[in-house]
Amino acid sequence: RGNSSGRALPGGQVFLPDANNTSPSVTFLQELPSYQSILRRRTSAGGTQDRRQNNHGFARSPAAEKRNLIKRAGVKSEAVVRSIREYALNIPEKRKLRDIQEANVKHLSGWDQLKQTRNKSWKKFLDETKELSSYLELWRNDIHSIEGKFGTGIKSYFSFLRFLVLLNFIIFVLMFSFITLPSTISQYGVFNSSYVKVPPKDIEPQCTVYTISGTKGLIYFYTYIIDLLSGTGFLEMTSLFYGYYRIDMVHFSAIKYNLPLAYLLTTLVYLSLSLIWIVKRSVEGFKQSFVREEDPFQSYCNKIFAGWDFCITDPNASRLKHSSLKYELETDLEEERLRQKKACRTTEEKLRIYCLRIFLNIFVLGLLSGCFYSIYRATIYSQENISNMTFEGNLFVQYLPSIVITLANFIAPLFFSYIIRFEEYSPAFEIRLTLMCVFVRLANIGVLLFSLGNRIVCANEKCKACGYNYELYPCWESRVGQEMYKLMIFDFIIIFAVAVFVDFPRKLLVTYCSCKPIQWCGLQKFQIPENVLEIVYGQTICWIGTFYSPLLPAIATIKYFIVFYIKKISLMHTCRPSKKSVRASSSNFFFLAVLLIGLILAFIPLGLSMTRIRSSKACGPFVNFNSSWDVVPHTIRGFPTALQKVLNGIASEAFAVPFFMAICLIMFYFIALAGAHKRVVDQLREQLVMESRDKQFLIRKITEAQRCS
Q1: Which of 19, 223, 426, 480 has minimal Cβ neighbours within 10 Å of its Cβ?
Q2: Which residues form a coiled coil (predicted)?
Q3: How does strand 524-526 pair with strand 255-258?
Q4: What is the mean pLDDT of each run of 10 residues along the chain (709 residues)?
């Protein structure tokens, strides 16, 4: 391929054969822009290179490099073979290389041949497994269809929703396998198993009283509806909530299963698993976003010249790919237009925008303060009057905090999305700023938990006996689980109700009514930030509530599975996509970044409840422990003395300080490595620029030569 015309190599290395197949003139090569750039750099750096090396400083031709590598491949080294891939080989050269590799196999020992065969088989197996798993991927065709019709931005939302379905399903499998299943089969004697209930030790008698109201005598039908929606009554002592698991040890023949330790460790495992999985996916999205932001023009060229997949043969697939590329190019052009507009702003315009932003942010802070105070007062009122109402009043009072939180989550983003139009941000930054509204939604959950915590941990005399308010909350963990359960159920009801009773009637009115105000309103826009905040809010509730309600991930899995189809139908038939184009690479990263914020904030209430708040003495597996975390040192005390010393040493300051120093050294090493890689990338980018200039120079010389002839 490089034998018929001139070609530039990386770093300004040029191979230009002439018609007589003789070496090119050195004087001519010295006129190349890449050579002049290298010469200026060496002169400014004061280098003392050999003059002969300066005159003949260009490396061997690509053909010579290929021949050399092929010869080296005949000797050994897979690394050499991999380096061949850096060069473009034509068909005869590839055949020659393959013959050399096949000949080398015959001279290998039996063990080396077995290793090579095993590596090839394993690689082939992984490739086939990956290809098969792509066909088994959940909602694969649906998401591809959405991508083709509405772009990669909306597709990234549905991919994010699929990720949460899988994450919640795995969390449910963990909680069910290690907590619910052992407790259930031991109570029914399956597999010759038995259990030992937690015996209360040194506990005041009034702390162990735990009665569930509304489960005796004549029960009306509407009571079951209240119990189903609020998690009280017949649901309160099921495996759905914390209070059901009052088991100390499960015996499977000769195996003893410590349920309190398993309860705590499983909680830590699902939180750690969520953290690792989110960070892993975030890093992948960050790489794409970073590469695109470093050189937008390169991304644009890649879409123009290398964006099409020539393996596509299906007309529908080609149509979807065409639409996807179209949306990506529209996004690039829109961002470039906004960058030019921002660069042309005058000083007066900048001053006006900054003053307006300060004023609007002050208004936002006032709105948030009002939302937080309303949630706090609603929670206090609900907890004080939860048992003094009729059916309708009781249901309303129980759901009052959820109603106020939902209203705050609905009203505040509406104001934010309207206000942000006047601040003149780019679409990408608008999405990031709107996604930061997740703090508002998560802060609403925080206010609810803070209000409950103040009533659970009281400071008066009547709480000293048990360490918590046992009169109002004999099993406070189950009460917190009920609040999270109600938030989860109410959030799903709101999503379903908005789609059925708001979006669908609005679609009918816009379609069949020609009234100007209705036509001016138009169809509901499918706003990606608001929908992402919606599911991040629900996932944070799931993370917090799983410790208090182990089967809550199952409800979240079913909820998000149904929400996917609700959102898909709403997008296809009752909504219209937003006019602002959204890029998938940046969207995926920021979706996961916002989800990571929700996970980190979920650690705070869980960590405090496990270590600082006294465990309930009337329910749960931690009756005989001051806190949930005390089960860990209690279990360690049962280990052999040598193992105890090792674990205590790991937990001591003598181990923590050297470990922290080692982590810092490793971090500094990777920072230095990243800096070195960045410099190499800058050099390669500069070489690509020089290569393009060399091509322009050669084309100009060829044109001049043709004119002279």
Answers
A1: 19
A2: none
A3: unpaired
A4: 41 43 53 68 54 42 48 45 51 73 67 77 81 77 78 81 93 92 80 60 72 60 75 82 83 79 92 91 68 59 71 69 74 74 78 81 81 80 65 64 77 73 66 65 79 77 75 84 89 88 83 76 75 87 92 93 90 72 61 85 89 84 85 85 83 80 90 86 80 80 80
Closest C-alpha to 57, from 31, 21, 29, 16: 29
Q: How many CB atoms within 10 Å of residue 395?
A: 16
CA distances from 119 to 83, 124, 329, 694 (A): 19, 9, 41, 42
Q: How many CB atoms lie within 10 A of CB 353?
A: 16
DSSP 614: P
Give the separation between CA 24 and CA 33, rounded to whole angstroms: 16
| Phi, psi (deg, nearest 5) at residue 675 | -65, -40
Nearest to 625, CA basis, from 459, 443, 477: 477
- Classify residue 88 by its DSSP letter: -
pTM for this model (two decimals)? 0.72
Among left, alpha and beta (phi > 0; psi -120 to 50; other), residue 581 is: beta
Tokens standing for 340?
A: 């030019």
Q: Phi and psi for 614 in degrees, rounded to 5?
A: -65, 135
| Ramachandran angles phi, psi of 45, nearest 5° | -80, -10
State the CB neighbour count (10 A cutoff) for residue 195: 18
The residue to which tokens 């038995």 are assigned: 194
Sign of CA dihedral 429, 430, 433, 436: negative
Q: Which residues, other chains included, contact 366 with Cβ-Cβ below 8 Å and sequence gap of 6+? A: none
Q: Is 119 exposed, middle or buried (0-12, 13-18, 19+ CB in 10 A)?
A: exposed
> What gap in Å lies between CA 543 and CA 535, rounded to an integer?
12
In this structure, are strands 193-197 and 247-252 parallel, antiparallel, or unpaired?
Answer: antiparallel
- 605: which 2 tokens? 């209430």
Task: Report the C-alpha gap between 366 and 686 in whole angstroms.
Answer: 50
* Phi and psi, residue 388, nearest 5°: -115, 30
Element (H, E) at 298: helix 296-306
Count of C-beta atoms within a 10 Å radius of residue 416:
21
**What single DSSP character describes residue 616?**
P
CA-CA-CA-CA torsion sign (235, 241, 247, 251): positive
Return left, alpha or beta for 101; rule: phi > 0 is left, psi -120 to 50 is alpha, else beta.
alpha
Tokens of 696: 């322009």
**Beta strand spans in 236-306 (E):** 247-252, 255-258
Give SS3 for 157.
helix
**Do residues 462 and 442 make contact, with C-beta atoms less than 8 angstroms apart?**
no
- Select from 400, 393, 411 the least CA-distant residue to 375: 400
